[in-house]
C-alpha cells in the first residue's frame, strides 16, 4: 500500500477512534439498528467509491461545512420570511381598514348630496302646491289682483310649514304702480281684520295641538321647526292699526309712505300673525338685495333664494320681527321666494304675488336614518366671501360657526359637489358667486374605522412563523444526530472491510450487500398477501382501479387475505325503482352519477375504500387494505355525511330531473367483523369482499328506513367503546333478517337527527296515508284562487315600470321550496323547447307583424268559451327539405334574457294559480308535463325508422321518413312546446270537484261555460289571460310570430286541454269516431299516401291521446307511483264528500270504479298508443305497467281501499285536528 494510502488509512483510524469516544454505537432498538444497518451499507458503498477514486476523507468535513452553511442560510431565510409575513399581513389589513374608511365616508358624502338635493326639490314641490292653492282661491273668489285676502291662509300655511320644515311664510301681492298703491291703501285698511282672525284661529289651533299632541310636545326635537308654538299670542284687543300706506324705512329708521313709481311688494298675510302689525304694508322692494332676488324671480319665471341673511340689516330685522323663532346666534339661513301666478294652468302667465319663506341650512343636511353615524364636517362655501361649517352625525346636525373649521389633515379625503341648480340664488357679492358643498371626515370618524387590529394580526403571524422556525430547527437537530450515528457506523464497517479484503473484492461485497438487501426485502414483501393486495389496489378506489384481465395459467397464488377488523356499509336509494320508471335513461344515470361522485369525494377524504356499486346500491368498507382500529368510527362519520349530502343533492337535482326527485331517500346499513378480501382473477379482474359480515351488512340495510342509518349490534359496541354512544339509539323492534334470524339493531343518528335529538324524530318517507289525512282535510283545504290580474297587479303606469325580476321575486316568495324547484324544472323544459322553436324558425321564412298580432290577440282574448274552437283537424306545417338541411342546433340558440325571465315569471304565476287540492295541483301538472315530455322524446327518437336500416340517419330521405312516420309532429317544434305548456296549465284553478258537480251546484263557472267542460275551459281562460299580459309580450312572440302560428297555437292549446275532459260522453264519442276514421281499416304504412288532411287528422288525434295518457300516466307507471296518486285522488274526493259536494262515499265504489277505469279507459288508451305506431318502446312500457297495475290492484285493491277508508273516512276527528303541510295559493 502506498504512502498516500497509508496516510489515508491512519487518518481514518484516527477519525474512527475519536468518533468512538464521542458517540459509541447504540443497540437499544433492534428495528432501528436493522434500518440503520441497511442505510449504513448504502452510505458505506458511497464511501468506498470515494476511496477507490482516491478522494480525500476531508470531503466529509467539506460536506458538513456545506450543510452547515445551507442550514444557516435557511435559518436566515426563515427569519426574513417571518418579518416579511408580518409586514405583509400588517399592510394588507391596514389597506383593508383604509378602504373601509374611504368607502364608508364616500357613502355618507353621497347621502348628504342626495338628501340635500331631495329636500330642495321637496321645498319647491310644497311651495308650488301652496302657490297653486292661493291662485285657485283667488279665482274661486273672483278677486282681482292684488286685492286678495283669504281667511284660511293660517291653516294652509301651517300645513306647508310642517311639510317643508320652514319657519316663516309670508304672502306679498305685487302692486304695479302708484294708482294701484292708493287703491291698495284703501283695501288694506278695509281688510286688516285678517290679523285679528288669524290670531283667533292660531289660538284655537294651538289649543287643539297641545291637547292632542302633548306627548310629542314633551319630547322636544330641535329639528322640528314648529315646537314652541305655545308662545304668547297677542289678544285681539291689543292689536294696533296697520300703517295706512305702502311704506319704506328712512335712513333714521322711520316709516314713510313710498311714493315711488312702483312696482311695490307690500307684506300682507303671514304666519304667525305679527306681534306688531305695523310691519304690514312694508314694501319689500325697498331693500336692494330683496329687489335683486325679486328681479331674478321675474326674469327666470322661477323660485329663487337670497344670500345668507344678515341680521345687521335693520330692514330685514324689522321684517322678520313677527316670527317668534329667533335665528340670530343659531344656524344660518336664507330667504326663499316663490312666484304666485294669476292663472294656475299657465306657468308663463303674469306673476301677481310672492310667497316668502326661509331655508334653514341645518335641515338640508340631516340624514334620514335613525342610526347615529360617526360625525363628518360639511362646509358650505358661497364662492365669494363666506363659509360656514356643520357637523353631521346621521339625523343630528350641529352648526359650528361662520368659517371653515374642518381639520386640515383630512383635506385629502375631501368630497365636493355643487349646490342644487334647481333653485337659483342671488348673492350680495355678485352674480359669479355660487354655492358649493365640501364634506370632510372628522377625527372621530377616522378613529371609528382605524383600529390596532393590523398590528395585532401582524404580531400573531410573526409569532406563528417564529414557532415554525423553532420546530424546524429542533427537527433538523434530531435528523442530524441520527445521520451522524449512521455515518459513524458506516465508517467503522468500511475501515474493517478495508483491512481484510482487497479493493476489488471489497467493492463487489459492497455492491452485492446493497443489492441483496433490496432484493431480499422485495422478495419477502412480495410473498406477503397484504402487500400483494395493496399493490394491486394501488392505494386507489375502484373509481381509478384498473379493470384488467389477469392470467391465472401461471398457477400463482391468488391475491387474497383475511382482514379481521372491518366495517362494511351498504347504501341503497329508497324509492329509486318507482322514480326511475317514469324517467328517461339519461336522467336515471344523471342521478346515479351525481350521487356516486359525491360519495366518492367523501370516501376519498374520509379514507374509506369504495368497493363497488350495484344498481342503486353503494358498497364501501373500512379496515382494509390499510388496517385501522377506528374502522367503525370512520365508517359512521362517512355514513352520516353521505346521508346529509344526499338530502341536499336530490333537492338540488329536482330542478333538472323533475318532480319527486326531492322525495327520494337513502337507506344505510353497517356491520362490523372479519372480511375475506381479494382480487378475483379472470376477465376484467376486480376487487371483491366475501364473508358473513358482508351478508349481514346487506340484511341490515334492507331492513332499514328512509334517510336513516341502521347498524348492527357489533358495530354499535365498537362505536360505544369509541365514545360515540350519544350517536346511537336502540331500535325498538327486533328486525327479522333473511338467513340471519332476529337481529337487535341500532339507529346511528344523522346530522339532522342529532340536531333535533330530545324531540320526537320521525322519518318522512314521502306522502303516507297518515300524512295525507292531515294535509288534505276539509278544514285545511283552501278554495281561494289567484287570478292573473291579482298575480300581475293592476297595469298602472307605476306598476309597468317595475322589472320582471321584482315581480318574479314577489311571486316566488309565495311559493314553497318544492314548488320553486318544480318551477325551475318546468322552466328548463320550456326554455329548451323554445330554443328548438327559434332554431326551426331561423331556418324557415317567417315574417313578423306586431300590429296584426296585437289585434288578433285582442280578438282571441274576448272568447271566454273555447269549446267551439276545438277542431277536428289542426293544420301542421308540411315538411321543408331546405329548412331541414339548414337545421340549426338548438343548443346554439341563446334566448334573450328578458324572454327567459318572462318564462320564469309565467311558470311561477301558473303555480300560484293552482289551488291546494290533494290531486289537481301544481305537482300533478308537473307530473303530467314530465310524461308529455317523455312521450314526445320517444316520438322524436323514431326508433322504428332508425331500426329499419343502420344507414337511415345518413340517408337523404331520413327527414321525410321521420316527418311521415310521426305525422309531422317532429317537424314542428311549436306543436311540441304547446302540448307541454298545455299539460302545465290544464288544471289551473281546478275547484277539486267534477264538472258534473259544478253543473249540479249551478256554479257561476258552469253558467259561464254553458255546462260544458267547465274546469278545462276555465283553465284555458285563466292561462290565456295571464299569457296576454303585457309583461309576457316577448315570451308569447317567441312562441308565435305571425297570425297563422298564433291561430295554430290557440287551436292546439284548446284541443289539448279540452282532451283531458274524459268524463264528457259526447266528446268521448266524437274522439272514438275520429280514431276509427283515422286509424282503423288502414295500416300505419299506408298513411304515407294519404291526403294532407288525413295526416293532420292523425297528428291531431295522436296529440289528444298523448295528453290523455299523460293525464293518467300514474296508472301506467310503477305500482308505487300509481298508489301515491290514487291515494291523493281518493283524498280529494273525501274532501268533497265531507264538504257535501259529493253524493256518495268514495270508498263504497272505489275498488269497482278503479277496475272499470283500467278495463274501459286506461288499458284501451295504452293499446291505442301502441296502435298509432309513433311512440316506440314507450307504448309497450305504458301498456305493460297498466296491465301489471291492474293485476296488482285486483289482488291488493280491497285491502288498499280499506286502509284509505280507515284513514280518511273514519278518522274524522284526526282530520279536523290536523294541520296542513302543503302550501296553497296565497293572495297577493
From TrEMBL:
One molecular function GO term is: 3',5'-cyclic-nucleotide phosphodiesterase activity
Q: Entry's Pfam families?
A: Guanylate_cyc, PDEase_I
The PDEase domain sits at 841-1062
Q: Which GO terms describe its cellular component?
A: plasma membrane
Comp. bias regions, Basic and acidic residues: 1-17, 221-232
Query: SUPFAM superfamilies under this entry?
Result: HD-domain/PDEase-like, Nucleotide cyclase
InterPro entries assigned: A/G_cyclase, Cyclic_nucleotide_synthase, HD/PDEase_dom, Nucleotide_cyclase, PDEase_catalytic_dom, PDEase_catalytic_dom_sf
Domain (Guanylate cyclase): residue spans on this chain:
567-701
Q: Known SMART domains for this protein?
A: CYCc (SM00044), HDc (SM00471)
Q: Which residues cross the membrane?
A: 74-93
Top-rank taxon, per record: Eukaryota
Q: Which GO terms describe its biological process?
A: intracellular signal transduction; receptor guanylyl cyclase signaling pathway
Q: Which UniProt keywords apply?
A: Lyase, Membrane, Nucleotide-binding, Transmembrane, Transmembrane helix
Localisation: Membrane
Region span, Disordered: 1-37, 215-235
Q: Provide the protein name.
A: Phosphodiesterase
- From which organism does this entry originate? Cylindrotheca closterium
